[in-house]
Design a protein that fits this description.
This protein has 153 residues and is of the alpha+beta class. It has three helices and eight strands.
Length: 153
């Protein structure tokens, strides 16, 4: 069944609000979140994690930033420095926690979603071919910025 424009707009609003709430609930570091931006064209990534979403909302959630931001978040959350495979593992788990919390929040709004396993992205990666790309920037106190992309079909 196809959603009306009003239903799509409501779902996108709930997706954005749920993303804000998920980040706040999962990451114990003071931060500021920007207003959402609509991206035209491709998304270019250097380091991050991609989580697929299926169900009522189809697309991907991407957390992207410098590896040093993910290292700092790992230090804040687990009290130890992370690098190499441990950093990749943590980044994937951070994506899982945020996307899982988001799916839980959306379910309380009668929006059913499921998430895929995380994919770690690094190096020069370009993603294209999405109907809508929304982005927000999360600025973590003394750690730097993380861009959150919602790539929607």
């Amino acid at each position: 069944m196809s959603l009306t424009v009003e239903q799509k707009n409501k779902a996108i609003k709930e997706l954005l609000n749920g993303t804000y709430d998920s980040i706040k609930a999962i990451i114990p570091v003071e931060h500021q979140v920007s207003k959402p931006n609509l991206i035209k064209g491709d998304v270019q990534l250097e380091f991050g994690v991609l989580i697929g979403m299926t169900g009522d909302i189809k697309g991907q959630l991407i957390l992207e930033g410098k590896s040093s931001v993910f290292e700092g978040l790992g230090q804040a959350m687990f009290g130890m420095p992370l690098e190499g495979e441990m950093l990749n593992s943590f980044s994937g788990e951070l994506g899982n926690m945020i996307a899982g919390q988001l799916a839980t929040i959306l379910s309380t709004k009668d929006i059913i979603t499921d998430i895929t396993s995380p994919t770690i992205v690094y190096g020069a990666v370009r993603l294209a071919g999405y109907q809508h790309i929304l982005s927000i920037t999360v600025t973590f106190e003394s750690l730097g910025e993380m861009d959150v992309y919602l790539l929607l079909q």
